[in-house]
TrEMBL record:
Example GO molecular function: hydroxypyruvate reductase [NAD(P)H] activity
Keywords: NAD, Oxidoreductase
PANTHER family for the chain: 2-HYDROXYACID DEHYDROGENASE-RELATED (PTHR10996), GLYOXYLATE_HYDROXYPYRUVATE REDUCTASE B (PTHR10996:SF283)
Taxonomy, superkingdom: Bacteria
Record-annotated D-isomer specific 2-hydroxyacid dehydrogenase catalytic domain positions: 4-318
Native organism: Azotobacter chroococcum
SUPFAM superfamilies: Formate/glycerate dehydrogenase catalytic domain-like, NAD(P)-binding Rossmann-fold domains
Protein name, entry field: Phosphogluconate 2-dehydrogenase
Length: 329
């Protein structure tokens, strides 16, 4: 039997499936103790399954028998792809099953920032609602405003659909390459990043974190945005220069920001971002619904069991590793 190390809690049903086919070691949390237990389990591990942990060479060198890593996420920025491929270790992720939920989160942030939902809900709780509200509590419209999407992939397209059909928003987008079908479906217009920033009321980031997208939105880019516009980040924190964003928000050069992801997570409680009324911060909840997290876990289990059984997993990120595995295995 193969050895699987889990560093993510799974439902009883998925645990039963895994245990029918492998020896399973569970690491319940990623505290110092948990990490020590993970290190102890790595020397005999054939498969790993989890998320939210940077698996670098320092850790994976401890796992000489490792055949597959199954990430319970679509983002793969926690993995050194070249290293995994060189060693013939298959990496899989969980795309598609989280697309719609993550786009919902994007829209939740769009609405919360534009209509000041969290700020004003806190104001009501604090007993401030003593008479009819006035312009000091007004927000700005979402419907009919221009939605600029940076990264027109799966989640980007799900946002475009919501914006176009649900809110009557003109859609602009920037991506590696133009997407004629998306343009047709949602009357979307391709723009350079600079033009998108200048023309959009909402700029929503849905790119993966890569060397090319790290710091994609810095002081120069923020300066191109309109003062009444709002930045939404549901991709990865490091895509935005947080210090530059803080300065832009403090100086009133942007109306607001909705962030689900941060340079450092968990976001420290003393982060100056949390002192801004015009910033809505959520704790990396993009895909965090019961239904979607279960679907992601099921997808990750399927991927891992296929890889360990010598079948090609449905969501293989590094197909080149298959060849390496075949020649070395
Ligand atoms: P996807 O389908 O691969 O879409 C990513 C898009 O980004 C692609 O269309 C790609 O363009 C574009 N892109 C990549 N690099 C770019 C660059 N340098 N400049 C411009 N465009 C670039 O991925 P997805 O499933 O939509 O997921 C996107 C990301 O969302 C994930 O990688 C993850 O980091 C993040 N995410 C976050 C959460 C959360 O909890 N907040 C949940 C799910 C996902 P081309 O198609 O032209 O190559």
């Amino acid at each position: 039997m193969k050895n699987i190390v889990l560093y993510k809690k799974l439902s009883a049903e998925l645990m039963t499936r895994l245990r029918q086919q492998a020896q399973v070691t569970c690491i319940d949390d990623l505290s110092a103790d948990g990490l020590a237990r993970l290190r102890d389990a790595l020397p005999t591990a054939h498969g790993l399954l989890g998320a939210s942990l940077r698996l670098d060479a320092g850790l994976l060198d401890l796992a000489p028998q490792l055949e597959a890593v199954s990430s319970v996420s679509v983002g793969i920025d926690n993995y050194d792809l070249d290293y995994l491929t060189r060693r013939g270790i298959l990496l899989t992720n969980t795309p598609d099953v989280l697309t719609e939920t993550t786009a919902d989160t994007g829209f939740a942030l769009i609405l919360a920032t534009a209509r000041r939902v969290t700020e004003l809900a806190a104001w009501v709780r604090a007993g401030q609602w003593r008479k009819s509200i006035g312009p000091a509590q007004f927000g700005s419209d979402v419907h009919g405003k221009t939605l600029g999407i940076v990264g027109m992939g799966r989640i980007g397209e799900a946002l475009a659909r919501r914006g176009h059909f649900g809110f009557g928003m003109p859609i602009l987008y920037h991506s590696h390459s133009p997407k004629p079908e998306v343009e047709q479906r949602y009357a979307a217009g391709y723009r350079s990043l600079e033009a998108l920033l200048e023309e959009s009321d909402f700029v929503c980031l849905t790119v993966p974190l890569t060397a090319a997208t790290e710091g994609l939105i810095g002081a120069r880019e923020l300066a191109r945005m309109r003062p009444e516009s709002i930045l939404i980040n549901i991709s990865r924190g490091k895509v935005v220069d947080e210090t530059a964003l803080l300065e832009a928000l403090q100086a009133g050069r942007l109306r607001g920001a909705g962030l689900d992801v941060f340079e450092r997570e968990p976001l420290p409680a003393d982060s100056p971002l949390l002192r801004l009324d015009n910033l809505v911060a959520t704790p990396h909840i993009g895909s965090a619904t019961h239904e979607t997290r279960e679907a992601m876990a099921r997808c990750a289990v399927d991927n891992l069991l296929a890889a360990l059984a010598g079948r090609r997993p449905a969501n293989l990120v590094n197909p080149a590793a298959l060849e390496v595995a075949q020649t070395t295995g």
